[in-house]
Design goal:
alpha+beta, 3-stranded antiparallel beta sheet, Arc Repressor Mutant, subunit A, Dna Ligase, domain 1, 3 domains, 8 helices, single chain
Length: about 220
């Protein structure tokens, strides 16, 4: 059955194509609501999933982080910045893996995805500027200027609660586990997201990232 293109879907698809970027639902919502002020974030989420299921856009789930969406339907790979979380297309040319030479353990291969991670040129430049500050501030710094390895007691509590969760958990669950107020938890989550220690792979739910686990156990 052909997908019915509502005004909302057409607008979401148009804004995604116009951006020429790999936007999250939240980023796309900020763009679309300027044109359709009454549209809700939930509507954007729902329609992105519908467009993805209809193969009109591609859904990217890189390193367990927040989903991104791509209007480019041709097969291509991506490169991901571990600091600012920027995603860009990657042209690997003739360097594609030959799956006929790989032990696929009996699987019938329907596709493949190459994930490349690193630091984008912009973050490399920021880091080089921050090198001079490290001696004065102590500890390593991120592109945003935060001390990457420094955690408050409450931030540690939040990360520990997330680490014990079986999958993404809501703020109220973290509050119940730590004894903190929900507002306090939300504030700590915001700070931890800026550090790259927390992600939101599911709407209104949060999970500790690999970087967060490393910082928690340092």
């Amino acid at each position: 059955m052909q997908l019915r293109m509502t005004n909302q879907r057409e607008m979401i698809l148009r804004e995604l194509k116009k951006s020429k970027k790999h936007l999250s639902a939240d980023e796309l919502y900020e763009r679309v609501k300027k044109i359709m002020p009454r549209i809700s974030l939930a509507t954007v989420y729902r329609n992105l999933e519908i467009l993805s299921d209809a193969s009109m856009i591609r859904k990217l789930e890189i390193s367990g982080r927040q989903k991104r969406f791509d209007s480019e339907l041709e097969d291509h790979d991506h490169i991901y910045c571990i600091q600012c979380h920027r995603i860009e297309n990657l042209d690997i040319g003739d360097k594609e893996v030959n799956l006929t030479e790989v032990d696929t353990r009996g699987y019938a291969i329907t596709g493949r995805r190459l994930e490349v991670i690193g630091l984008c040129p912009r973050c490399q430049k920021k880091n080089s500027k921050n090198n001079a500050k490290k001696a004065k501030q102590g500890g390593s710094t991120m592109g945003c200027g935060c001390k990457k390895g420094v955690l408050s007691d409450e931030q540690k509590q939040v990360l520990e609660a997330m680490e014990k969760c079986d999958g993404p958990c809501a703020s109220k669950d973290i509050a119940a586990a730590t004894g903190l107020e929900t507002k306090q938890v939300s504030c700590r989550i915001t700070a931890l997201k800026k550090k790259g220690y927390v992600d939101s792979p599911v709407r209104c739910k949060y999970a500790i990232t690999t970087e967060g686990k490393i910082a928690l156990n340092v």
